[in-house]
Write a structure and sequence with these properties.
The protein has 588 residues and is of the alpha+beta class. The protein contains 18 helices and 14 strands. It folds into three domains: 3-107 and 486-585, no CATH class; 221-346, Orthogonal Bundle (Helix Hairpins), CATH 1.10.287; 359-464, no CATH class. Helix 4 (45-57) packs across helix 7 (91-99), helix 8 (103-132) packs across helix 16 (489-516) and helix 10 (220-279) packs antiparallel against helix 11 (288-346).
């Protein structure tokens, strides 16, 4: 085989096309511009990091697959040329470079990914606002287990991962509904494996807002009313605390009086006993000695009762003090939040409407209240048994169930108030028929959507958050995040960032390819639902001939390819419609 054959034949057709698209968005050049402290021997460290991204796009499960698969990526010069590289390094070199990255360098590479993503995201944000009037976010926490016997992964911890207790990490992920691409990943943050969902809600919201640069108008009026109610409640508890303190002091005074009287009475008893014994007098029922003995016993019982009463009053006082302390701390925290929200509102010239969907793991009372106060239309489920048992008791006698799915029915209540939650909520009780059993769960909503009058719509809108669950599954099975290929903290951080970027990249390129080549296979034509698994696992491992041209290439699938007979001509150009100036200003 000639050198020319090596340059024009590839076993990774889609990686060649993606390399051409990468030039459209400036990716290879921006990667090469990142300053890394490692030396260049045969291949630069920047090339090796880029090769790691390409291996993720190829869906390679293990680092060694770069060099030891049936058609090694590092031997495919056509792919290297498509990505603007003279060649690829052996997998061991890629591994060493990643292990040697510092956190600062990894964050610089992540900043490049964000720089590339930002104009595309900005355009999608404006499309979403134009088409639906709002942004729709989804958040979730997903497990990244490692071997339970491993000692080389930094910062791991045991936690619930699926149905098991495993060693590993948790990744907090946020996505946005995209009119052009279906799902647009916004952020991913790695945490120890013992991290639980309810601790990450605020961080996810903040991450989404940081990426889009937009946020809703904070509901400071509701938050102010909540603080006022808490202050009134705190005042009542303070009054109860004062009464408890007063009652305790009175009880302590009464006990002190008994404690003073008892020794004196006991001394009188001793004197009478001595006198009766000396005179050999008989103790009778109503004698002075009998009365003194009864007086001592009565005072001892009184002392014991008052000591018990003091213990009870001290316990009650401590309870009142804890209530006051807790409320005061909550008022201070919410007052700080109110001050922050008022500042954010003053600096928000372009408030938007947005909804956030989260599963029950995030649906604690405080998280739901926080999302409401942040200004979001909230779709979630309550954590634990917060509401479902109450609604089951209310719904068991009702017959007005509405069918919302093949095996699902719902009952709903609009603007319901609960004593343990500060705001009215739309709530719905769901029941699912699973064989001979019935399961129940609850949906929560806050906002302007008339969900209580459209139960099928509410049911399907909440369950549309399966898009993020599908994205997590795609990340694990297609971009192989079920295998952590690196072990240093900076490299683990970078792998997470590259994987979500790869998922976005494939969707962007699907639209770009369809615009250039109307004859692409039918499954690739819908950019909102491209066959990502087919593109990564099949098309990226299929053979083709590459004819290099000045502004791109002509790729012809070989007769041994699943796509035999097709040719794709692509150019290194892509137009992204930037947002209007007024919306750009809203990003700051």
């Amino acid at each position: 085989m000639s050198q020319n054959d090596l340059e024009t034949h590839t076993h990774h057709a889609m990686l060649v096309i993606w390399g051409q698209f990468a030039h459209c968005i400036g990716l290879p050049g921006l990667f090469q511009a990142v300053k890394l402290h490692q030396k260049t021997v045969q291949h630069s460290p920047q090339t090796k990091v880029l090769e790691f991204l390409v291996s993720i796009l190829a869906g390679l499960e293990h680092m060694q697959d770069i060099s030891r698969s049936a058609h090694p990526l590092d031997q495919d010069l056509a792919v290297a040329k498509a990505w603007g590289q003279a060649g690829w390094a052996d997998y061991s070199g890629v591994s060493r470079t990643l292990a040697g990255l510092t956190q600062v360098e990894a964050e610089q590479i992540a900043a490049v990914l964000e720089q590339i993503s930002q104009p595309i995201l900005a355009a999608e944000v404006m499309r979403a606002l134009q088409s639906s009037g709002r942004l729709s976010y989804d958040g979730d926490l997903t497990a990244r287990p490692v071997s339970n016997t491993s000692t080389t992964y930094p910062g791991v911890a045991y936690g619930h991962m699926g149905d098991e207790l495993r060693l590993g990490y948790q990744a907090a992920m946020v996505s946005m509904h995209s009119p052009s691409y279906g799902r647009f990943w916004l952020s991913v943050e790695q945490h120890p494996g013992d991290t639980i969902s309810c601790t990450q809600a605020e961080a996810m919201v903040r991450a989404a807002e940081a990426k889009t640069g937009l946020r809703p108008w904070r509901r400071t009026d509701l938050l102010g009313q909540r603080i006022h109610r808490l202050e009134y409640e705190c005042q009542k508890f303070q009054e109860q605390e004062l009464r408890s303190q007063s009652a305790l002091e009175e009880a302590q005074a009464r006990l002190a009086k008994v404690q003073q009287e008892l020794p004196e009475t006991h001394q009188v008893l001793l004197q009478l006993e001595a006198e009766y014994q000396e005179r050999k007098r008989r103790e009778r029922s109503y004698s002075a000695l009998a009365k003194a003995r009864q007086r001592v016993k009565m005072l001892e019982r009184r002392q014991e009762r008052r000591a018990q009463q003091i213990l009870m009053l001290e316990k009650r006082l401590r309870h009142r003090q804890r209530q006051v302390f807790t409320l005061q701390a909550q008022i201070r925290r919410l007052s700080n939040r109110l001050e922050t929200f008022e500042t954010e509102n003053r600096a928000n010239p372009f408030p938007i409407q947005a909804d956030f969907r989260l599963d029950a793991g995030f649906g604690t009372r405080e998280n739901v209240a926080f999302l409401i106060e942040m200004g979001y239309e909230v779709y979630t489920k309550p954590a634990g048994d917060w509401l479902t048992p109450r609604l089951k008791r209310r719904g068991c006698s009702l017959s007005s169930w509405t069918r919302v799915g093949d095996n699902a029915e719902m009952l709903a209540w609009k603007n319901e108030r609960f004593p343990d939650f500060p705001y009215p909520l739309d709530v719905a009780l769901e029941r699912f028929y699973t064989g001979k059993t019935i399961r129940h769960s609850t949906l929560l909503h806050f906002g302007n959507d008339p969900v209580a009058t459209d139960l099928p719509g509410w049911f399907h809108r909440y369950n549309a958050r399966q898009t993020i669950e599908a994205g997590i599954k795609e990340g694990k099975n297609v971009f192989t995040m079920h295998h952590l290929k690196v072990r240093s903290a900076p490299a683990l951080f970078l792998q997470e960032q590259l994987a979500v970027f790869a998922a976005n990249f494939v969707r962007w390129s699907a639209r770009w390819l369809t615009e250039q080549c109307p004859q692409v296979p039918a499954p690739w034509q819908d950019a909102t639902h491209p066959k990502v698994k087919e593109l990564v696992k099949v098309a990226a491992h299929t053979s083709a001939w590459v004819d290099w041209q000045d502004q791109g290439c002509l790729l012809t699938f070989t007769d041994h390819s699943l796509f035999a007979g097709r040719s794709l001509a692509v150019k290194k150009q892509w137009v992204v419609q930037l947002p209007l100036p007024f919306s750009e200003n809203a990003h700051f």
